[in-house]
Amino acid sequence: MEDIRMVDLKRQYHRYKSEIDSAIGKVIDSSSFIKGDEVSLFESELSAYLDIKHVIACANGTDALQLALMALNLKPGDEVITSDFTFIATAEVIALLGLKPVLVDPDPGTFNISPENIRKSVSKKTRVILPVHLFGQCADMEEIMDIAGKHNIHLIEDTAQALGADCIFSNGIKRKAGTIGTIGTTSFFPSKNLGCYGDGGALFTNDDDLAAMIRSIGNHGMTKRYYHDHIGINSRLDTIQAAILRVKLKYLDTFNRERKMVADTYDRELGSIKELTIPERSSFSSHIFHQYTLKCDPLRRDGLIEYLAAKSIPSMVYYPVPLHRQKAYAYLNLKDDGFESTNMLSDCVISLPVHTEMDDEQLSFICSSIKEYFEK
To answer: I want to staple 84 with a disulfide (CB 3.0 to 4.6 A). Which of 103, 120, 178, 311 is the partner?
Structure first.
């Protein structure tokens, strides 16, 4: 049996080796390493895939979030509502720009930001709602759009973990994650469902003026060479990474189907274990399983992690410390009251390996090992 990894990028590379090597080789032959043709071609192809007017590539997913906020002409002290249960980057860029992160408790079933808690947190200073489509499925965008519309608030989607997922509206219309709000953002970190071989990110919008502003800000604030109309940053996707992403974009739907097949097996094999709760699949989103995250009896989770590790089965806890408990955000003076769901999830979640190269032997070994642990 092959070694089990949380994400097996080596085996995936060998599956598409000839195409990827050829794409990289062409960039090296051209020596156009920055802003080469592959970047604009990738932007166009991702735009077509998402059915959105503009895709602007950048250096990483964190930069994508920062560029989105910078493009909206916000003022210091403006409030941005986001989830307490997510990776630090979301709150980080808010704080870096002198804005105020307003952290809200997630839905304990889907792990995504709760529209009910968003409604409770809207104030006169709220300028942006920033939902994170966590672990591979969309937040309740229909409800969140309703809130944003009623209060004239911008909506930025963090789609780093859900690129390719469909948001399903009550009228049956489907739209890709990241294409619903004012701006969508994503990351191409190697372990993402669509990942490059380094860092990378992108923003999406249907707004022509916003797209032009984002491009300018991401290129030192330039509108034309050596003319700087805005305070900007240097954030670009290099050509080699774009070439790799062009190859992998063709297979994104395949990757997402394969991850779902792994998740289906886990659901089937682990769903009857009373100490575990399999991931909730909402009615308003497809699920592409960037992570397969269970809820486990908190008294048994750490023991399960150790038991699996002894069998060379990796697992992860996303996220062990809620944002409101992080030292960096102590200045917000947030208390545990009001964060019951986040605190509960941090104590009980565990993510199992899920990726495109998993085989039946590996899955069987993981599931049987988990069953053994709970039968002890």
So the answer is: 103
